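Q&A log
Question type: sequence-to-structure
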Amino acid sequence: MDDSIRAELMGIYKNLIPKYPINNINVQYFDLSGGNIYNQTQLSTSYAGTNPLIDGFQSPINSSGNIQTDFRNQFMLKDPKLIEDTLRYYYYLLTQHDPLSSSPMIPARLSAHKHIHLIYAYLLENTRISQIFEKILYNYLHNENLGIASYKTKILLRNTEYLFFDRNPLTSKVREDAEAVRRNAYYRLFGMDLSFGNSNNPLNTSYNYHKSEISNNGFISLFEKLLKEFWQGYINALNTTTTNTRDDYVIEQLIRDLHYMLMGRRTHETATQNMWKYYDASTLSWEEFHSVMMMFWFFEIIDDVNSPLIEDLNAHAVRSGYRLINLGKKVNLSAHTKSQELIDLSIPMARLLRTIERLDINNTRQVQAYITNILARSVPPPPPTPLPAPNMAQSELLTIVNLWERTTGHRIKETVGQR
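Response status: OK
Response body:
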């Protein structure tokens, strides 16, 4: 590989790493293309500086010598092969490090949300975001009914086509349809299908893919039972006067059942927490990683109010879900009416399910400590002192309860008489 190209590649690798002073971390970087190992001294001396392959975006290295972290820098890279190598490098890192660790080699926006979980990809894809982007690509590449794309939009679309519709790592001679592969993975882990069919046949609400004979068909029922019991525990945390429907034992059993259900599709190990030593030990890790990165890529585009694609198609809206709906209208493809709710649900759901998967389910104290944490409430102080904020795990569970009700229409907040 040409040295100048290798230098640019390493610059892009660094761009996926959270912001930190280069000289304060002792870590090596593996260049998959050249098979070379670079330490932080070589990186900081040989590869710092402006990246000429990125137009109109920040350099991976700022003036203070710290690494920039904005994933959107990748959109404007002129050579999509470098982005592809970066993603493969990132997967390599996950196979060497706990995917939920605080390792500085994990992309900042992913590490902060810890949403490398298949449910994140499922919820985002259920907005129809992938089919809408495919339709936009098709229209730009075959005619001009969407207008002439701006320079930045052309690069963005070319990279999107190359990474996810041409070089999709989920496809092969055995698995030729990437969407069918993702649907198969969703069905296996959650027993759920996407809410729409083939984009080329709007009247057909089904999609032809292999539905595994073994799948977690009871996921929705079990998950909703857990949400209902959490809600009862939450509203009764301070109840000392009336019938208290909180049942920590039932919550513990539901967490165990959900843990075993999810991990049963991922590994045959009995000590399932050992699986996370190496991410690629998971049966669905390859499908999960690439599905998440694909949906994350699409989301970053619609979440950016200054996205050149949003600008070109005049799809402006207050929030990302509504921008997606506007993009769908441009290509006569209806996004999910609850797109914003699905987007808002994706990160807390991913974090919750990953946490449950990672619990040492044989350690009763650990499980009970988690339950105590999500149900912890204190007596409200007298006015005008503000109410204390819930902890993050509890806050996200409350968010999930509210969004799950709004998205599915299923009742979670039941009263004693309704139970």
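Response note: The first strand starts at residue 29 and ends at 31.
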